Amino acid sequence: MGADVGASNSTAALVAHGLSKRYRRKLALDQVDLTVPAGSVTALVGPNGAGKTTLSRVCMAFERPNAGSVEVDGVDPWKHRSQALRRVGYVPQSPAVYRGMSVSDHVAMARSLHSGFDSEYARRRIGQLGIPLDQRADTLSGGQAAQLGLAIALGTRAQVLLLDEPLANLDPLARREFIQVLLDAVRAEGSTALLSSHIVTDVEDACDRLVILGGGKVLLDCLLEEARQTHRLTDSDSPPPGATAVGSFLGRKGGKLTLWRLAVPEVGAEGAADVAAETTSLEDVVLGYLAAGRGTAGLQLN
Amino acid sequence: MFARIQLTLRQHRLETIALFVLCGGLALAGVIEAWRLNSLNFPHSCLQDGRVVQYWYDGSSAPTACQLASKKFYDLVWSPDMSIVAMFEQILPFIVGIGFGAPLVAREIETGTAPLSWALAGSRFSWLLGKIVAVVVVMVPLLLVAGLAADVREGALVPGIDPHAMFDSYAARGVFFVFWGLAAFLGTLALGTIFGRTMPAVMVALIVCVFVRGLWEPAWTHTILRPFAVEADYQWGSADLFVYNSDQLYLDGKPWNGDLNQWFNEHQPAPPVMATPDASGMVPSSSAAVSNAQPVDFGPPPQPITYVIHGADYWLVTRLECAVLLAGSLFCGAIALFWVGRRKPY
Amino acid sequence: MFERVWLTWKQHRFETGLVVAIGLITAVAALIEAWRLNSVGFPSSCLSDGRVPYWYDPAQAVTACQAAGQRFHDIHNEFDFGLVAEAGQLLPFLAGLALGAQLVAGEIDGGTAPFAWTLADSRWKWLLWKLVAAVLLLVPFMLIAGMAEDVLQGAVNPGLSAYASFENYTARGIFWVLWGVAALCGTVALGTIIGRASPTVLVALVICIFARGTLEPALNATVLRPLAVLELPRIHTPGELVVSSGGLYLDGQPFSGDLQTWYQDNETCTALAGGGTECHSPEQGPEDSSYAIPGNQYWPVVARGAAAMLAGTAVLAALGFFLVGRRRPY
Question: What is the ipTM of this complex?
């Protein structure tokens, strides 16, 4: 099997350097630099076509990057695919199930494929959600199928969980249950999760870090609290002092709103306390960057 | 309508490409093989009843010019490439038909796009009819081209007979390509609509096609073609289609119900008187040896009457059989159109 | 291991059922047809080179041999008999294609490949186990069918053992297994490229037909040629396999001259009493010889053919492994 390739950076679960991926004429990922700290639950947000799924696929060695590199728990998935995949639990966007095979069969299949798969753990998770083990998987509801996918990913006991928009087709209750199961597992195992989602309230409840992708680039990568504190929303075109425009979008009452990114003063400097006292809602921050990701003017990247 | 056809073919581009490649390839292969046979310039004076008689040299005499030409001809006819082309002519329409029929509905159901399509279309009937028309519009001309090339190849195999005046492999060439293809297409479409899955539809369709094709000609000659058959002196290898022999035996034009073995025993010629060897011990092979034999001529023995369909009735038979194939195709298409309205889109 | 195999069969239960059905139905049908032929009780004294001759002469009385032969051939010429006897031309392929198309292409088509390939320790191991499960299913059922076809072949030529005759040899016996496994591995490789199950089946079917039509000439020209012995004209052993022509021979010696000239030079002419001459060709001129393998070499021939086919199968399997490692799972 070869020597186990250890983590080169013990504090990072996922590291991407200058990662680029092109599909014919479309640049899906453009020089992406990203570090997901170990033990964090990171939200990956972006408009459709931003590159979220591509990033997941590159990390899973489904797609070969055109440039740059990525390491999952210190292992390059293209150079050492088996070892990388042993460190990752993956929940795809639309988890497909095998026709005519029961939930129990799916767990058995995972056990037969993945050495070290904890089928008891997976069954326990499934049982806690009230999903019958003998039920045919193709008769499960969308939420139940997503939970099955999560249970199997958790059963791998992987240190890194990659979840590619698993909540997209779930009702609010199913989403809440999904996130709760995820958080319980992550806290108990000390693992890292990278969760891509459009639904801001779920992100707020579950995640401690936020990465926003737009046009294949990383537009924002920071803690959730930092995102709230370092952005302002105004209904005028006049920028707050030292701020740069991020993007404009339509407010709930129909007026134009603009998100600004503040020049954050050092701790102790004049005005720093005032800045920290005011926060913008995460939803507004995300909307501003989503608008920017569609290509509206105003955003200058560092 | 053109846009609809184009979109359907784009949706099934793998099958469309395969259709063009297979039909075009087989047509080209058929024409090439016909050209190779015709290039041998088999002398028409050597034809017997329009055919090239196969010749096996057995060392008893020098091969004649006709026999040498026949050997070259059949060396080509039995070559592996010619056999492969002939084999593909038997199966191409079925492969094309099954290839298009299976995914047309079943794949939409399998991939989950059926709810979207059926919701947008409003009428599932017109949705499916549009798809069928789109496929048929492309499939028919391409199969016709391949079928006509098979006719050309058959014509080269039997240089002295018009391929449309003989029944050699008649159900595996010409317009039959189109009608077999339609039957396989609509039959597999019906299966795919019922099963909702492509692979079972493909497998069942393949097995059904093998049975139908194998039983087709025997079934026709035993049933529908009988009333069209006429009495004739049938020779094996003629352009006529052998349909059946009468159960009744006839002798001198009258029904005869005796014991055939007894008749032969009563009518055996007397054994010839053997000539004595000459001084050298050789027995001359001249006819003098049987000069003492009694000449006999009992005429032909009791025989059944043979009923055939003459080669000139090729189009009659073709029209009949293709009409039945078309009727079967339309029936299967009707099943598909009916079932698509009733089934769930998943 | 058993669980892995069982789950694969369960996952592909339609194809599993199809393979079992093909094997069992063919076996039963072949045995029934063999029994029907044997029930005719064709007298051994009437056999010719171990075969039932075919007489057709309406100008002669029907002897007891001919009557039995007629009953024998009436069964032999029936449509269902032909279907069973020729099953080996298509059914082993169908079994291999059906399974092979689903192993990889079916997973990609069905969207379950990401699930399987992310969980699997390695894609190679994943495919290897799937192939093991498929082969464990194919081999016994194809072998049953192939052996039953051997029994049928033995009944077709009552005086000739099926294992001492090359008649239809690549469509019976162990060749059912070989064709099935070759079709399986080839279809896996093809399916990995195409990524869709039903086009894979149809393209693979076309390729199988090519392979079926070219295998015997290819084997005859290559691995079997060394086993062939020159058979002088008019010398034939029952059940032999003719692999190539040996050229013309005359009186046991190779003949390379021109036939027309030889016959002209060797004809005898005698003067006729009434004037003129009568010329006769020699009784026997140069004849074709052949390189043939006698029937008692059945097992060495089968071994060589099997080795060649297994080598080809191994190449196809290796191609499948290579492609599955590089392919996207969607």
Answer: 0.84
